[in-house]
């Protein structure tokens, strides 16, 4: 079996990445904004922190769902893989938009290599879902 096409590996890697990303948002978001914008007001920081905690919650939710999908085999895994890939591809233009946003705050801009990594991570489950078969998930 091709390891790269194994749904268990894909779901585990993407699930763990989402959990780590959620932890970074939940525990590191306030510090990131304090460092990037030292003149930020407490009210604004409180609002941003709340938004980041909500975002972290969605990362936790998605990470847990993906980890629980590890036991799915083809053909059941196919739709989840394709849906995950499409969902992640939707994030790529948002990240590209943020590359030019936050003028004066480069710490808040995603670097280009991160967008390439995100696009590759999005194409991975999409490719596996389209090209994979029940024979490859055994």
Protein model, in words:
It is a single chain. This protein is mainly alpha-helical and 138 residues long. It contains four helices and no strands. The chain has helices spanning 7-36, 42-68, 76-100, 112-131. Helix 1 (7-36) runs antiparallel to helix 2 and helix 3 (76-100) runs antiparallel to helix 4 (112-131). The radius of gyration is 17 Å and the shape is elongated. The model is unreliable at 134-138 (pLDDT under 50).
SSE blueprint:
Elements: H1 7-36, H2 42-68, H3 76-100, H4 112-131
Helix pairs in contact: 1-2, 1-4, 3-4
Features:
disordered C terminus; mainly alpha; 4 helices
Can you describe this structure in just a few lines?
The chain has four helices and no strands.
